[in-house]
Amino acid sequence: MICVKELVKNFDDVCAVNNITLNIPEGEMLGLLGTNGAGKTTLLRMIAGVLEADDGSIVVDGANITSGDVSEEIFYLPDDPYFFPNASMEEMILFYKKYYPRMDAEAAAYMAGKLNLETKRPLRTFSKGMKRQAFLILALCAGTKYLLCDEVFDGLDPIVTEVMKNLFRQEMKERKFTVVVASHKLRELEDICHSIAILHKGGVLTSKDMRHQAGNICKYQCVFSEQTDLEEVKKAVDLIRFHADGYFVTLIVRMQPETMARLNSFSPVFMKEVPMTLEEIFIAEMEGKEYDIRKVLR
Amino acid sequence: MTSVKCFGSWLKEAGRGHLTALFGWTTFFIYTVLLVMRLSLDTSYTFFGIGNTVLLWLSMGLGVLFSFLEFFYLLQQKKQDFYYSLPVKKGMIFWSRYTHGVIHFFLPFLLMISVCGIWQAMVDPEFAPFVGSYTAKSILAFGFAFLIFYHIGILCVSVCGNFICAVSLCVSIIAYSSLFIENVIKVFAKHYFVTYYKIELLEKLNNILSPFGLAKRLAGLGIYEKRIALQYPLPAPYIIAAVVWAAVLFVLFSAAQKKRKPEYVGTPFMFRNVQRLTEILLSVLAGAWFAAFAAELTKTDSLLFGFVEALCGAAAAFFVQYLIELAVKKQGVSLLRRKGQFAAVSIAAACIGPAMMFGARFYDGYFPKEAEAVSVVIEGVGMSRDEYEMLDGQENTVTEKYLYRFRMTGEGKKMTLQWAKDLAVAVNGRDAEEQKSVTKATVCYETEGGSRHYRTYPVTEESLRKFSSVYETKEYKTLAYEGVSLEEVGQDKFSWKDGVFSQTMKIEAEEKEELLKRYKEDVFRFQMEQLTKACPCGILEISSPADGEETELIVYPFFEKTCDFLESRGIDPEKQIKDYPVESVEIKKTSAVLPNVSGGSYVHFYEEPEEVDQWKEKLIPKAFDVQQILYPTDHTQNAEAVVTDEETASYVRVKCILK
Fold it and tell me: Boundaries of each ABC transporter domain copy (chain A) (predicted)?
C-alpha cells in the first residue's frame, strides 16, 4: 500500500504539489487525473524516488520511500522513457533484470511477439506507439509490486490505446499489483481504473470520495407534458444540471426531502432515476469548486 | 538491494556509453605508437613524460572531456529520471561514473608510460638510470593534471543545470586567476608602480591558482634539454597545490552531487549560492579588467584619470552583472532586484585600481634593510644589440638571464645596495624624471627566507657613472667576464678572432696559463669609464677538450698585458677591419612603411675605393658591439663588408655596425 501524507513540493515560487494525502490500496489501479501542470508527474516522480518532497512523507509497505528499501518494488514509466543509444528491447530486458530480479524475460518476449514487436531491433527505430508498447511490456514484466505510469496513453491512436489497456487488464488478472496511471484525460482512464483521483489546486480528490459526497445527488430522466413550464421545474429543485431535448428532460439535482414531491407536482409523463457516470459525478462535484472540469473531459 | 547492485555492476553500466573508453584507449594507443616511433629516431629531444607538451594537453583535455561524458546525465532530465527511478542509490551511480572515468584514463596512460619507458631504456643507455624516477614523476605530474581538470569538469556539471552554463563555468574556473592576475593586477601594477618589473608573489599565485599554470609547472613544460627533463625535481609547493586543488574540488563536487535537486536540471545553476558567487566573481573581473584597459589607454596616473578608470570599472561590472542576471534569471523574477549585489560588485571593481594607485608609494618606496643577495642588470651594459632590442622594460628572458647571472652576495652586493638606494630615493623624489634617464636598471633583492623583490629604476647619466662602484668590484667583474673563472687551461685550444678572421694560437701550456693570468689582471684593473672610449679589439676563444665548452674572452685595446702578450706571439691586437683589403661595403637602411605597402628597405653598394675608404673607417664587426649604453653605435643602418682573404684569394662577408 502506498500512503502519501501531507506531501508538499515547491519549485521555487511555484507550488507543484500542495499538501496531498492519498492512500493507494494494494491491487488497485488508480487513475491520476489533472490538467497539465496539476502536479501529476511531480507526484509520480516523488513516489518513484526521483524527487524529494519538501514536506510530508511517502510510505510504501511501511517503509519510507527515501530509505530506498522499497525502490525495488516500484517501476516508474515516464511519458518519454529513456533507453540506451542503439539498445534493443532485448538489451533493455537484460538491463532491467539486473535491478528487478523478478523481471520475466520470457513473458516480455512473448508479449512483444504477440504485438509484433521485434525484440532485437533498436528501440530508436520504433514508432512512438511501438516504443510505448515496448516499455509497457517491460514495466509489466518487471515483476514489481507497484507500477507508476505517466501519460502512458497520450498521443496514441485508439487501437494502440486499446491494445495497451488490454495488456494492463491481462496482467491485472494474472497477478496482484498496484498501478498508478497519470493522465490529463478522464476518458483514457475511466474504463480501466478502479478509481480515479483528481489533482485539484495541488490537492487531490478521489472518485470514491466523490461518489460518497455525491450520494445525495440524483439524475432523473423525465418527459413532461406540453403545458409544463420547464422554467418552473428548474426553480422547483436544487438543480445542478439541466438538459432538455424537446419534452425529454435530464435533470441532475441535489436531493432534499421534498424534491420528489415537487417533481411529481408537475405530473411528468415519465420519470426515472438513472445511475450517474463518473464524468457526471466529477462535473457535479468540481463545478462548484472553481475547477474547469471540461479540460480533462475533452 | 540485491547483490547485483554492487559497485562493480554499476561500473559496467557506466561503461555503456563507451565514449570515455573509446577516447581514452584510442588516444593513448595512437600516441604510444607515435612516441615509440619518435623515440626510435631521437631520444635527445623526445620526452614521453615530463617535458612533453602534447601529453599535458591530452591529460588536461581528456580530464574535461571525460567529466562531461561521464556526468552528462546530470544535465539530462530524461536520463536522470531513468537512473534515479532504478533501485540504485544516486551516489552509486555518481561514484561508479567517477571511477569509470579515472580507470579509462589511468589504465591506458600507465600502459603508454610503461611501454615508452621500457622502450627508451632499451634504445637509450643514458636513460636507463632514470627509468624509474622519470617514469614515476611523469605519472604523478600528468596524473594530477588529469585529476585537476577532471574534477573541475565534474564540479561544473554538478553545480550547473545545463550544458552551456557548465562549459562556461568550466572555462571561467580554468582561466579566472590568470585573467585576473595578468590582465588586471599586472596591468595596474605596470601602470601605477614606477619601479615595477615583476612581483614574485603574483608569479607564484598565478602558477598555483591557475589550473593550467599549475599543470604546466608540474609537467615541466618548456624544458627542452634531456638532462634537465630527466632530473626535473617535481617542486613540492606545486605538488601540494595540486593535491589541494584535487582535494578541494573533490569535496565540493561530492557535496554538490548529494545536495543537487533533479528538478533544477535545465536551469543555469543548481544552487543559488553558486550562481551568486559566479555572478560576483565574473562581474568584478570584467569590471576590473575594463578599468585596467582604460588605465592602459590613458597612460597617466593622475587622480582624475584614476577616478575615471574607477567609474569605467564600476560601470562595466554593473553591466556584466546585469547581462549575467539577464541570461540566468527565471521567469517572473525582476532584474536589478539584488541591488546590494549590484552595488557591491561595482564598488569592488572600481576599488582595485585606486587601491593599486595608493599602494604605489609603498611599492616604489621599498628598499630592503638587509639582503641575502642582490642581482642587477642595466639595460644595454654588456649586452649585444640583439639582446638590447628584446628589452622593453617588462619581464623578458634577457633580463632574467642577466639577473640570474649577476647574483651577488659579497662586495658586489654591498656596492649594489648602496648604488640602488640612491636610485630608489631618486625615484621617490622623481629626480630621475627631471634629469632624463638614459636607460633602466633592474634589481632583484633576495631577502632572508629566499623571497625576491624586483624593482626597475630609471638610470640617469650620473647614476650610470656611479655604477662604476659596482662594476669595478671583483665580484661583478668575475660574473661579467666569465674568462676570469677559468683555471688550468694548459690543454685548451686558444683562438684569436679579430672580427674578420679567426686564427688558432700555437702556444705552449705555460704560455696559455700566462695569457689567462694576464687577462685576469687586465680585467680586474680596468675602470668602467674606459669602456666608453673603445670597443673590443678582439675575442680570445678558449675551447676545453674536457667538456667541449667554448669561452669567449673579450679583449679591449686597454688590456695592455694581454695585448702585449698577443703581440709577442705574432698577433696584432690593434688590427681592425679597416686594415684589411675591403672590396666593397653594403649599407642597408630600413624605415617603417604602412601596412601592405612594399619597400622600406634601401641598400646602397659602395665599391669605389674612395667610398670604401670612407665607409670602412666607420665599421665595427657586429661581434664587438657589446656595450650599447657605454659605447653607443649607429644602429639605424646595417653594414656588410666584403673583405679579401689574401691567403686563399677569396672573399669574406663580415657583418658590421657603424660607429
Answer: 2-226
Asked whether the predicted pLDDT for residue B3 surpasses 50, the reply is no
Size of interface A-B (CB pairs under 8 A): 59
Q: A85 CB near a chain B CB, below 8 Å?
A: yes
Stretch 18-57 of chain A: residues touching chain B, C-beta under 8 Å:
42, 45, 48-52
We report the CATH number of the domain holding residue A127 as: 3.40.50.300
* Residues A290 and A161 placed together within one structural domain of the fold: no
CA dist., res. B360 & res. B195, Å (int): 9
Nearest by CB: B87 against A45, A71, A85: A71
Task: Find the domain containing A290 and state its range.
Answer: 212-296
Query: In this structure, is residue A274 part of a structural domain?
Result: yes
Residues of chain B that touch chain A, judged by Cβ-Cβ distance less than 8 Å: 1-2, 4-5, 9, 13, 16-17, 78-82, 84-89, 261-263, 330, 332
B265: phi then psi, degrees, rounded to nearest 5: -60, 130
A206 lies in some domain: no
Considering the domain architecture, whether residues A218 and A195 belong to the same structural domain is answered as no
What is the distance of C-alpha A38 from the center of its chain?
13
Does residue A37 sit in the same domain as residue A147? yes
Whole-angstrom Cα distance, residue B309 to residue B288? 9
The pLDDT mean for chain A works out to 83
Can you point out the beta strands (E) in B245-293? none
pLDDT range class, residue A153, cuts 50, 70, 90: confident
What are B470's three cell numbers? 659596482
Give the sheet arrangement for strand B582-590, strand by strand.
Answer: B601-606, B582-590, B634-645, B650-658, B619-621
Is-contact A65 A215, C-beta < 8 A?
Answer: no
Backbone angles phi, psi at B212, to 5 degrees: -70, -45
Least confident stretch, B205-219, B529-543, B637-651 = B637-651
Give me the percent of chain B exceeding a pLDDT of 70: 94
Q: Worst-scoring range by mean pLDDT, A134-138, B509-513, B595-599?
A: B595-599
Could you report the per-residue pLDDT of B270-319, keeping only the tens digit for each? 998 999 999 999 999 999 999 999 888 877 767 778 788 888 899 999 99
* Residues of chain A contacting residue B8, judged by C-beta atoms under 8 Å apart: none
- Cα→Cα distances B18→B4, B11, B23, B255, B267, Å: 21, 12, 9, 27, 28
Predicted ipTM > 0.90: no
Q: What confidence tier does B116 reach under pLDDT thresholds 50, 70, 90?
A: very high
Q: Would residue A151 be called left, alpha or beta, if left means φ above 0 and alpha means ψ between -120 and 50 degrees?
A: left
B351 or A210, which is more confident = B351
Burial class (CB in 10 A: 0-12, 13-18, 19+), A48: buried
